[in-house]
Amino acid sequence: MNDRPHLSAIKIVLVEPSGPLNVGSIARIMKNMGLSQLVLVNPQCDRQSPEARQMAVHAQEILTCAQVVESLPEALQGCQKVAATMGRTISLPTALETPHTLLPWLLSGESALVFGREDRGLTNDELNLAQRFVQIPSHPIYPSLNLAQSVAICCYELYRCTLETQTEKIDHQGSDLASRQVLEAYYDHLESLLLQIGYLYPHTAHRRMEKLKRFYNRAYPTEPEVAMLRGILSQVEWAIANRSPSKGSSGDT
């Protein structure tokens, strides 16, 4: 049996799944296509229910070993690349891509493919954790796909990518890309400094930071580059704390 290390490093992340039949079906298609890391964020159903196990068939171990976490940032720990799926069109400054064009990008480094809730998808805050966005093209007469169908299409596309003989089709961008924890720590540091110098205001900081995060996410910074950026922030903080009083501000006698 061929070992496919690219697929073993990819997390399939389901945010608040509510249907045990969907979860079981997803476990089965993951095993069909050689994926093994299933992460459930605050699941609203029992992954070990009879309905889920019945749909999983011979993929029971994926249900049993699925990681259950409380939040999406927790699910993305250690990930260098994050793609979010979207079933509806909303206003985003970043283009939506098809599975065919986007998913090969996930095949190098620790990656995650995030799927939203069955009824309302992902929130804006959750979307801001992703670097790229995928939407499955479907017929306009009835474009809606259910969760298990969406995961099946993407898992197949990921598996198909590993069968490509032309390795240049797979993006092998540096394996030292910054993880989500490193990026989020940088964003917190940046927001704190921008609030301190008055560039951000508390009541609008969240929306302004969304734009900055999207800018950095499109750049795919490496861990050394984020360390450099944090060094700049730290130096600015030091300069502020140690700046000399302006000339003429002290009383001359």
TrEMBL record:
<keyword id="KW-0819">tRNA processing</keyword>
<dbReference type="InterPro" id="IPR001537">
    <property type="entry name" value="SpoU_MeTrfase"/>
</dbReference>
<comment type="subunit">
    <text>Homodimer.</text>
</comment>
<dbReference type="Pfam" id="PF00588">
    <property type="entry name" value="SpoU_methylase"/>
</dbReference>
<protein>
    <recommendedName>
        <fullName>tRNA (cytidine/uridine-2'-O-)-methyltransferase TrmJ</fullName>
        <ecNumber>2.1.1.200</ecNumber>
    </recommendedName>
</protein>
<comment type="similarity">
    <text>Belongs to the class IV-like SAM-binding methyltransferase superfamily. RNA methyltransferase TrmH family.</text>
</comment>
<keyword id="KW-0963">Cytoplasm</keyword>
<dbReference type="InterPro" id="IPR004384">
    <property type="entry name" value="RNA_MeTrfase_TrmJ/LasT"/>
</dbReference>
<dbReference type="InterPro" id="IPR029028">
    <property type="entry name" value="Alpha/beta_knot_MTases"/>
</dbReference>
<feature type="domain" description="tRNA/rRNA methyltransferase SpoU type">
    <location>
        <begin position="10"/>
        <end position="156"/>
    </location>
</feature>
<dbReference type="InterPro" id="IPR029026">
    <property type="entry name" value="tRNA_m1G_MTases_N"/>
</dbReference>
<keyword id="KW-0949">S-adenosyl-L-methionine</keyword>
<dbReference type="GO" id="GO:0032259">
    <property type="term" value="P:methylation"/>
</dbReference>
<keyword id="KW-0489">Methyltransferase</keyword>
<keyword id="KW-0808">Transferase</keyword>
<comment type="function">
    <text>Catalyzes the formation of 2'O-methylated cytidine (Cm32) or 2'O-methylated uridine (Um32) at position 32 in tRNA.</text>
</comment>
<dbReference type="GO" id="GO:0008168">
    <property type="term" value="F:methyltransferase activity"/>
</dbReference>
